[in-house]
Write a structure and sequence with these properties.
about 220 residues, alpha/beta, 11 helices, about 50% helix, globular
Length: about 220
């Protein structure tokens, strides 16, 4: 059973999402929150698999709520998915840097919404290759933090290559084709890199790669 926490300051939006989720046998909405502060309390209480969090809310916005969840070891199993009205915008990028596993636009089709919840629950990032490329092209033009490149020193050559390809928006199957290895081995390289870099998920791996200058928009 996938346990979901809904966080949005608009009751109508929460009701709509809940109506969809309640129809699914493998998904359970364990709680609802109207702001980020309440979301943190309920996340610690219920330990959901997925937290669907609106990016703009009163008291504590979605980005700060995500940052608090990502920093709490007790919430390591909580996968945050940011909800936005506007698609790819600066809030989404900041949310990914804060630790979100991905984002959904609120006008998403019901079947895609349900699929996305299941993807997030598995621990996979909700970042399609096209979205990754648009995100990076728009918001990352140079390394944004210092010291990130040093963190990559612990990666093997193959792991660095895999991280580079992840940051370019390739799936595990595409990485396998590019590196001439099996999809299982590609996934292993990616997972080991995530562990070494202390990345919560694939989305954070993308952000770290660009912050370190491992890949830049010019490479795409």
């Amino acid at each position: 059973m996938i346990r979901v926490l809904l966080v949005d300051d608009q009751p109508l939006i929460r009701s709509g999402f809940r109506a969809l989720l309640d129809l699914e046998d493998d998904i359970e909405v364990v709680a609802e929150a109207a702001d980020g502060s309440e979301a943190l309390t309920l996340a610690r209480q219920h330990l959901p698999d997925v937290s669907l969090i609106d990016v703009q809310m009163p008291v504590l916005d979605g980005i700060e709520a995500t940052r608090h969840i990502a920093a709490d070891p007790a919430l390591a199993g909580v996968h945050v998915v940011i909800l936005t009205n506007y698609g790819l915008d600066e809030y989404v990028f900041h949310a990914l840097r804060a630790g979100a596993a991905g984002f959904l636009v609120k006008d998403i089709r019901p079947e895609d919404f349900l699929h996305s919840v299941r993807v997030a629950a598995r621990g996979d990032a909700l970042l399609a290759p096209s979205i990754t490329r648009r995100l990076i092209n728009r918001y990352v033009s140079q390394p944004m933090t210092t010291g990130t490149a040093t963190r990559l020193d612990g990666l093997t050559i193959r792991e660095r290559e895999a991280v580079t390809l992840v940051a370019q928006g390739l799936s595990n199957d595409e990485i396998a084709d590019h590196m001439v290895i099996s999809p299982f081995t590609a996934k292993t390289h990616v997972n080991r890199a995530m562990t070494k870099l202390h990345a919560r998920d694939r989305a954070q791996l993308v952000v770290l790669a660009y912050e370190a200058g491992l890949v830049t928009p010019r490479n795409l």
